[in-house]
User: What shape does this take?
Amino acid sequence: MPHSESAPRRSTIAARNIADLELRAGRRLPAPIWHYLQGGADDEWTAARNTSAFERYALVPDVLIDVARIDASVRLLGHRYPLPLMLSPTGMSQLFHADGEMAVARAAAAHQILYSLSTMATSTIEDVATAGGPRMFQLYCFRDRGLTLELLSRAQAAGYVAICLTVDTPLAGNRERDITTGMTLPPRFTLRTLFQFATHPRWVLPKLFGRPFDLANVTRYAPSVSRRRTGVMEYVNSQMDRSIDWKYLEWLRSNWAGALVVKGILSPSDARRAAELGCEGVMISNHGGRQLDGAISPIEQLASIRDAVGESLSLILDGGVRRGTHVLKAIALGASACAIGRPYLFGLAAGGEQGVTRAIEIFRDEIERGMALMGCTSLEMLGRRHVRDTLNLPLAEFDERSPAPVSAVGTSALPIGV
Assistant: This one.
């Protein structure tokens, strides 16, 4: 689709789709780091199903519509963005490229899409703010509320438009790949992993001679990761407060004046409760399949959550999005926007800022092309009549006036990363 002259310069990474970026990333990363990026909990059923569940929803296009001009912009959390896409919070981005979160923030800012910085980032709140562009800061439910208040204050001072509280991590999921590969913070070179690291010098050399690896925003409150070696999940478990409940969200709401988003909700009742407590948005997410294996996929819960909360709450679908048509299916079922995590990390690993830019370009082009082929010149035109749940609804009974049912869970599964 055509773009204005003010559009950011296109990436030089020649990937056709997100799967191409995934292949490039796999060649760039040592095996322990690659498995950390790709892995899920237990049998990784949920991680795989997040993407494969999109297959149960078929698109129903309109034809003979003037689609000479396509507007893919969306209103999200009180702001207008050029795409229904945001970048999810992902911890420790320096694992995948030496430029880490800064490369991601610059690419997002160039396209003016929302980037959510993780508490577990390897770049500071303040450094990421220098990239410009809209940004949100993600929080975990820490034991130390003094740490949380300090992070809120820093985010506000640095111009972050929203806070995102992750609520599905009272403790870390059972990520068996990390146990098998011996993944630690920071990554260590052992006899077991020496060959993998030695055969990836473009990854190793920046780690040996570049800036130290650390969780930049929490070093004042937690022992420096660069000075101690610990399993990833051991470290996460040591920081999280398992006793928190809905009162914690009320406390956070009272201490943050901007937009508040809750990440990790899968049930309609929880989404309604978040709205009642004053949240502006919900990220429908199962943490990329890295927490509770066997959890339902976000796309399958989307329509019922939208029905439960009405139209006022921003709903961001997070999990399994690999194609622009996935985004369109989510919008039609009630999402305000979609969030991507692994796809932009594939780009980061494949080519730093240029790779992240390419991931955004791929989604932009696929979204705009899909809208034209759907006969929808704006996202507001997409509705439930444009999707059909092929798992539950016989064609003869399809009624455009009725929402597609979303209660059943399908059984198909594809490999992780498809």
Q: What stands out?
A: The domain at 18-397 is CATH 3.20.20.70 (TIM Barrel). Confidence is low (pLDDT under 50) at residues 1-5, 395-418. The longest strand covers residues 259-265.
